[in-house]
Design a protein that fits this description.
Subcellular location: Cell membrane
Pfam families: EamA (PF00892)
Keywords: Cell membrane, Membrane, Transmembrane, Transmembrane helix
Number of domains: 1
Shape: globular
InterPro entries: AA-Vitamin_Transporters (IPR050638), EamA_dom (IPR000620), EmrE-like (IPR037185)
Order of helices and strands: HHHHHHHHHHHHH
Oligomer: single chain
Number of strands: 0
Structural class: mainly alpha
Helix content: over 70%
Strand content: under 5%
Protein name: Transporter
Distance between the termini: 59 Å
């Protein structure tokens, strides 16, 4: 009986300390930390591919994220209508397919290329929301990036299948953005994301358990999977949420546009994935297209 209040006081004090630490970091720093956290998680996940297939690694990541998010923001299912359930389940299934196809792309492509192609999804959502002629420039620039990434010339060794998986992941990312907004209107706080991650874990479990088998029970792999879940989901989401409370959304969007470049840098430093000049040019084109569309939307 005596441990309850002390435990709650301790957790509250730790939460206050973490919030104070986050408040001491500029919001732009929080966004950049979140970006590098995601890419570090992807790098560790890619290292796991030597021991587990991508689908099993996805299951570990999503299951870890669902457990942690479920403990932080337990979804309230009472009183939900069928439309709420439809949005939540659709959100979760989209999250599952997005992660599965991205990790399949990651198994076949350098990180920088996989993230750059996937980033076409949110860029497409941003451009589709506008009707200005200058947006054609950003579409053309992004298209040039895709052409430069296609498997010919210096990119001849790049996998067409990998690019296909990354494009599907990008389309799912676009749907994720729209469903995230819908879930935010129907679920209080962060419970919509928590609900979606639980749905995603349940949906991906049959594939992940079947392909991973008994290897999923190895303690070291479970520990790395937990780390991937923290780095790829829980930590960046928390940092981004904190940053969005203290900075304009257009600045957040500009900083997030740097994600493909961060992925390429992490790939070089941690995985030894050296990109050719043509591939760097493609990544820069996609980053520039995202930056341009974000800045123009802000001015308008």
């Amino acid at each position: 009986m005596g441990r309850g209040p002390i435990g709650r006081w301790g957790l509250s004090r730790q939460g206050s300390l973490l919030r104070a630490a986050a408040d001491s970091i500029p919001p732009s720093g929080l966004v950049l930390l979140g970006i590098f956290s995601v890419q570090l998680g992807a790098a560790f996940a890619k290292e796991l591919f030597a021991s587990l297939p991508p689908s099993a690694v996805v299951f570990l990541r999503i299951a870890a994220g669902a457990l942690i998010m479920g403990a932080i923001a337990r979804p309230k299912l009472k009183g939900l209508g069928w439309r709420d359930w439809a949005v939540g389940v659709g959100f979760g299934l989209t999250l599952a397919v997005m992660n599965l196809t991205f990790y399949e792309a990651l198994a076949r492509l350098p990180m920088g290329i996989a993230v750059a192609v996937e980033f076409l999804g949110p860029l497409g959502v941003a451009v589709a929301a506008s009707r200005r002629r200058i947006d054609l420039l950003w579409v053309g620039l992004a298209g040039l990036g895709v052409v430069l990434l296609a498997p010919w010339g210096e990119s001849a060794s790049v996998s067409w299948i990998g690019i296909g998986f990354a494009l599907v992941a990008g389309a799912c990312w676009a749907a994720y953005i729209l469903l995230s907004a819908a879930a935010g209107r129907r679920f209080p706080g962060t419970s919509g994301l928590s609900f979606a991650m639980i749905v995603s874990a349940v949906a991906i479990a049959p594939i992940g358990v079947t392909t991973g088998g008994a290897d999923l029970l190895q303690p070291e792999l479970l520990l790395i999977g937990l780390g991937v879940g923290l780095l790829s989901s829980v930590i960046p989401y928390s940092l981004e949420l904190q940053a969005l409370r203290r900075m304009p959304k257009h600045v957040f969007g500009i900083l997030m546009s740097m994600e493909p470049a961060a992925a390429a840098l992490i790939g070089v430093l941690l995985l030894g994935e050296i990109l050719h000049a043509q591939q760097w040019a493609a990544v820069i084109c996609i980053v520039a297209a995202s930056l341009g569309s974000t800045r123009v939307r802000k001015r308008s």
